[in-house]
């Protein structure tokens, strides 16, 4: 299961997804759950109009929550008690920020999204080859340093 949204919203209408796609995703979710596995899906973009449907069909984890179109704090408040959320460190930050800015963003995400569980830190999409390696390592290091429970 992959990419059903752009930064502006779903690639096709929610009604079309409900009619033609989500029942297949539910079969995959059921098969995963029947075998004691989680159902994880990658789709960047603005999933706001689809989240309730994704959760209802049995999705356990969504990766990534892309900060260019979805605010992790708002997503966590609205759906974070029903689905695990991954991501939200901007790829642009990984490309151009200082390591101090990366650490500050990681701490902000941990503060806002980690309490109560159901959050995994990650990039806002994949980690592109144009990201600075030291920034990726700063993201990883800040998570290891500040991400242990209880979250500050």
Could you walk me through the main structural features you see in this protein, from its secondary elements to its overall organization?
With 152 residues, this protein is α/β, with parallel strands linked by helices. It has seven helices and six strands. The protein has a four-stranded parallel sheet with strand order 3-4-5-6, covered by helices on one side. Strands 1-2 form a two-stranded antiparallel sheet. The radius of gyration is 16 Å and the shape is globular. It starts with a strand and ends in a 6-residue tail after the last helix. The model has no long low-confidence stretch (mean pLDDT 95).
Question: Biggest sheet, strands in spatial order?
Answer: 3-4-5-6
* Distance between the first and last residues' Cα: 35 Å
Beta-strand content bin = 5-15%
Q: Provide the succession of SSEs.
A: EEHHEHEHEHHEH
Largest sheet: 4 strands, parallel
Q: How many H/I helices?
A: 7
Mean pLDDT: 95
Helix content: 40-55%
Total number of β-strand segments? 6
User: How many whole angstroms does the radius of gyration measure?
Assistant: 16 Å
Q: Which stretches are low in confidence, meaning pLDDT under 50 for 5 or more residues running?
A: none
- Give the structural class: alpha/beta
Net shape? globular
